[in-house]
């Protein structure tokens, strides 16, 4: 049975998707992973991206050349540093569904995607396709915002809602942190500091501390008058968190934030990578 870690990285050849490829290659080095660069053709995109570079007849050769070039660059840079392989493919279809189907075929462990490529920029708010992909995916998804370039994270911020599954999800966070020697802040944000939050927080700390076996972990309980998402944004800025990580389960507060507030300017989503754990 093949146990190689597999990463699928969709690209539309925009600046943002290239940043996502950089993150995918760096994580691929870390996990000794197979990396799949994947593209779903869209004629409107090519009119913007390539202008007069091709006629409709050679659209596919244009795509293949672009993908081959990316595979060569990634392979030369990252295979000597631990990436197991890099390959590419393109398939026509509806973008989000086609990406998810391809991830299923490859049995991907992680999908890494940029938030603002050509298609997302057509909308009035950030991350249209990325948000749909996160909502629909049953695999972990990492979302890389525009103009966010790779750097080894000094601090990972895990947003908890005191779910039983958090214990398993946080183990994934610890594995990530160990590779980078990062600090982890395990944070719960509530709109009012309720006694039940304090009680749940203390219980979680007592249960998790012996379970984690990692020294650089801080447990944080924060209360903000505004909604939890804005409180989390505020915490990320103050604490200088580098990546926001959350467990995505139906009807959790974070699922509601992610679904309902995309049109608001939430800088944690625009300026920080977001790692959404779907499988525990």
Describe this structure in words.
The protein is built from 11 helices and 10 strands. With 280 residues, the chain is an alpha/beta fold. It folds into 2 domains: 139 residues, HUPs (Rossmann fold); 123 residues, 3-Layer(aba) Sandwich (Rossmann fold). The protein has a 10-stranded mixed beta sheet, sandwiched between helices. Helix 8 links the parallel strand 7 and strand 8. The longest helix is centred in the first third of the chain and has 20 residues.
Write out key terms for the chains shown.
single chain; 280 residues; alpha/beta; Rossmann fold
Side by side, the strands of the main sheet go 3-2-1-4-5-10-9-6-7-8
CATH topology of the largest domain: Rossmann fold
Q: What CATH architecture label of the largest domain applies?
A: 3-Layer(aba) Sandwich
The value of Rg in angstroms is 19 Å
**Beta fraction:** 15-25%
Number of domain units: 2
Number of helices: 11
Shape: globular
What is this structure, in a nutshell?
By secondary structure, this protein is an alpha/beta fold. It has helices at residues 15-31, 43-50, 59-78, 95-106, 118-121, 128-136, 166-180, 195-212, 228-239, 253-260, 267-271; strands spanning 6-10, 34-39, 85-90, 110-114, 140-144, 155-159, 183-190, 217-223, 243-247, 274-277.
